[in-house]
Design brief:
- This protein has two domains: 3-87, Tyrosine recombinase, N-terminal domain (DNA polymerase, domain 1, Orthogonal Bundle); 114-292, hpI Integrase, Chain A.
- 56% of the residues lie in helices and 4% in strands.
- It is built from 13 helices and three strands.
- It has helices at 3-17, 22-39, 51-63, 68-87, 114-122, 131-144, 148-152, 182-194, 220-234, 242-255, 260-267, 272-275, 277-293; strands spanning 159-160, 165-169, 175-179.
- Strand 1 and strand 2 form a beta hairpin.
- It is elongated and about 65 Å long.
- The relative contact order is 0.10.
């Protein structure tokens, strides 16, 4: 066994047994390789690592001013690696067992108000040949609570206008049905019928909904740039990304009284704990309103 062999096996385990996305797999590998780069010069094999070795490594990265959140992610990667070695019977004792992650607190995501979302959509230049596409992108991100990767991978064959839902391929290639509202249906229909249907489409990209000028599937970066430009257009001071629309979708549902389990299903969260952050966000929203408007505040 060697670090290289073990990491290669770990990669296969993440891809096949845990069915993680490429981005998640690369994140895990990056963190384990960081630890391997620390251990190899000290002549410490992956099977001889002790809890003290890991603690010393964490002390070293702490000196690099790495944030608590990044440290927690690195520890999570190393723990997953040693869990794999235990499962494969390469080890009997897990050296990460008593290693604790730093406290990172609850980070509430930024959200947009409905007025801000409407302003962003209104700022789309419909005289531009990609205006209808960009308007449909923003509305679909918000109305369906999609991740940016889910949006760029959305296919025509997975849109069911009559039934009112999209079939979405989420993290780990897991499928879910996302309800789609009337306004998103309207803008998508206009884009598909009046713009997309008149494009020359690149071979292999015929089923993707959102296309660039060359008739190819849009990239994640292009979605970021579209949103950034609209943000500048309306002078919005918030730092937002495609994921902000997903956060806003969930927050507005919770504020409106939606059931937490229903929101979990719509977002495609594996654990309801992930969805529960929006209940905290809702409490924060209520608290800020009380402070602002209550006469005794």
């Amino acid at each position: 066994m060697s670090w290289e062999t073990s990491i290669k096996g770990f990669k296969s385990y993440l891809q096949i047994e845990r069915s993680l996305s490429d981005n998640s797999v690369q994140a895990y590998l990056r963190d384990v390789k960081k630890f391997a780069n620390y251990a190899i010069p000290l002549d410490i094999s992956e099977l001889k690592v002790t809890r003290e070795n890991i603690s010393n490594f964490l002390s070293e990265i702490n000196k690099e001013s790495i944030s608590a959140r990044s440290q927690a992610r690195i520890i999570s990667g190393i723990k997953a690696f040693y869990k794999y070695l235990i499962i494969e019977d390469y080890l009997k004792v897990n050296p990460t067992e008593l290693i604790e992650s730093p406290r990172i607190g609850l980070k509430l995501p930024d959200t947009l108000s409905l007025i801000e979302i409407d302003n962003l959509i209104a700022a789309v230049d419909l005289s531009n040949k990609q205006g209808e596409r960009n308007r449909a992108i923003i509305e679909t991100l918000y109305s369906c609570g999609l991740r940016v990767s889910e949006l760029t991978s959305l296919q025509l064959s997975n849109i069911h206008f009559k039934e009112g839902y999209l079939r979405v391929i989420g993290k780990g290639d897991k499928e879910r049905l996302a309800p789609i509202g009337g306004r998103a249906i309207k803008y998508l229909t206009i884009y598909i019928n009046e713009v997309r249907n008149h494009q020359s489409i690149k071979k292999g990209h015929e089923d993707f909904v959102f296309l660039n000028n060359r008739g190819a599937k849009l990239t994640r970066v292009m979605i970021f740039l579209i949103i950034q430009k609209l943000t500048e257009e309306i002078g919005l001071k918030k730092k937002i990304s495609p994921h902000t629309f997903r956060h806003s979708f969930a927050t507005h549902l919770i504020e409106g009284g939606a059931d937490l389990r229903a929101v979990q299903e719509m977002l495609g969260h594996e654990s309801i704990t992930t969805t529960e952050i929006y209940t905290h966000l809702d409490k924060e929203y209520l608290r800020s309103n009380i402070i602002q408007f209550h006469p005794r505040s």
